[in-house]
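ERR on first pass: missing label on line 2. Operator R.T. fixed the label and resubmitted. Corrected input:
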Amino acid sequence: MIDNNIKYILVTGATGQLGFDIVSELIKRGHHVMGVGSADLDITDDEAVFNFFNAFKFSHVIHTAAYTKVDKAEEEKDLNYEINVHGTENIVSGCYKYGIPMTYFSTDYVFGGEGDKPFKEDDPINPLCEYANAKYQGEELVKKLKDYFIIRISWVYGKNGKNFVKTMLELSKTKTELKIVADQIGSPSYTIDIAKETVDMIESKKYGIYHMTNEGFVSWADFAREIFRKTGKKVNVIDTTTEDYGALALRPKNSRLDKTKLYNAGFDRMPTWNDALDRYLKEIGEI
Ligand SMILES: NC(=O)c1ccc[n+]([C@@H]2O[C@H](COP(=O)([O-])OP(=O)(O)OC[C@H]3O[C@@H](n4cnc5c(N)ncnc54)[C@H](OP(=O)(O)O)[C@@H]3O)[C@@H](O)[C@H]2O)c1
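pass 2 clean. output:
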């Protein structure tokens, strides 16, 4: 039941991995929340978004909705831009009109992956694929607002959606050997941890651009090995290269994100990716 005297925190993408856990975290902390999926509000529908912002009062908008199929975006270019750029533009317009602070989630893929040093927030961006390019254009739109968080996250997995961990567990039912990319290094990140840190940030009002991931770095191949080791699956992981794997979308080899800014701002150090993986596998009943 919506109460028009209350200002809600709007969460788009509430049916997705991250949005789902952010809604839960907000509710746990006693915030008034309105979580929407695409059936409730299609962010690409200008009139629907306009009417939505006119109808309800929001204290903050957390925009997690996105087109997230990184490889498919190379083929479905228009849909990728329609959702990730035009859809974001609609959300920004609503926030702009009513002076609402906004949180936008972006990605490690906005960087080109040069070298092996973790990327800082203001390092030059160089998106290598359509998805990353659209997500970066979204960042630029959000910067029009007075108060915003742009949070770059990486290699996300959560209970409510598709992700690398679930794909590996699914493949382990039929495969005894898998070739996995070993030359892309980054930080797998658990939506439960991102959700907690995000709500801390929103409550702090320390607006800006931040990098946020679980601690530590690992390759996809070693991450897969750890998933199989923890769950006792007998799958032999063979290292392969980005080039040999030949995914449709090019991804950065160095996906390391520097989180000094996050920690210097007083936010909690995130748990390690390995600790997060343990908790996730427990959450989905795999260990
Ligand atoms: N997944 C990753 O590895 C990763 C890495 C870095 C950054 N990110 C960013 O983190 C955010 C959350 O990602 P995620 O993995 O949680 O996403 P996800 O699980 O794929 O969920 C995507 C969400 O977007 C919604 N959506 C898609 N099209 C929409 C439309 N036209 N109108 C309204 N809603 C729409 C979906 O709604 P329905 O299901 O109701 O259709 C769903 O709730 C995204 O901004 C993503 O770009 C993700």
